[in-house]
Amino acid sequence: MTLEDFARQPTPTAELPDPTPLLESLTRGVLEVLAGVREADQLARWFTEDAFRVLIARANLSARARSARGVVPTRPVYRILSTRASSPADGVVEATVIVESPGRTRAVAIRLEGMDRRWRVTTLAVL
């Protein structure tokens, strides 16, 4: 065995499930983390370390903004309007999930890569 055997192993798309349900579930989870009603750790297994750090930083900013305004965390009410995904390479999915809430419409951009036989978020942006 070599050290490379212990590193993350890329997984081809053919060996991975349809990413759409995961994209929508992750979007819901991320919005709940940003709203302060879900612990980010519940999503950690689906994120690479760098992407998870970005999520934590964004959640901390959201928590500080809520605290400064005296807003209590509440479960967000929204609906997913559309999910668009493309595959720029084998084992990679780049997607945009459009989410509508009473006050605004947002886009969540997610890049998934197949690693160790499951999809993992490598990039996340909530716009």
Descriptive overview:
With 127 residues, the chain is α+β, with helices and mostly antiparallel strands. It contains 2 helices and 4 strands; from the N terminus they run ααββββ. It has helices at 20-35, 49-69; strands spanning 79-89, 92-100, 105-115, 118-126. The chain has a 4-stranded antiparallel β-sheet with strand order 1-2-3-4. A hairpin with a 4-residue loop joins strand 2 (92-100) and strand 3 (105-115). Helix 1 packs parallel to helix 2. The longest helix is centred in the middle third of the chain and has 21 residues, at 49-69. The model has no long low-confidence stretch (mean pLDDT 94).
Rg over C-alpha atoms, rounded to the nearest angstrom: 16 Å
Annotation, overall tally of beta strands: 4
Mean pLDDT: 94
Largest beta-sheet details:
4 strands, antiparallel
What is the helix fraction of residues, given as a range? 25-40%
State the strand order across the main sheet: 1-2-3-4
Q: How far apart lie the N and C ends? A: 43 Å
Strand content: 25-35%
Low-confidence stretches: none
Specify the structural class.
alpha+beta
The H-and-E topology, N to C, reads as HHEEEE
Outline type? globular
Total count of helical runs of at least 4 residues: 2
